[in-house]
UniProtKB/TrEMBL annotation:
Name of the protein described by the UniProt record: Helix-turn-helix domain-containing protein
Protein species of origin: Consotaella salsifontis
Top-level lineage group: Bacteria
Amino acid sequence: MAKENPQRRWPTAEIISRAVFSRDPGPIRFVDTEAAALYLSLEAHTLECYRSLGDGPAFYKFGRYVRYALPDLEAWAEQYRKEPARAASKGIPRNGPP
């Protein structure tokens, strides 16, 4: 009589046989720190520093993993958007024809 192996492998073959695999998981909802930094044209270390200071974009913590939602990155970047000031309103002479 064969003894059951105490070091069972997980997931079992039976669970894998019932699994449904999808080729298209849909749109990406979350990105890691490196991808978020690339998206914002920042260094990953900069986002890590913002996080430790309680600043920066909103993030999610899944266990030890930090993830950012793309709409949160866009909203955070949008709050730093600046409109260029018109040169005429500051009394700076324009170059070129009037």
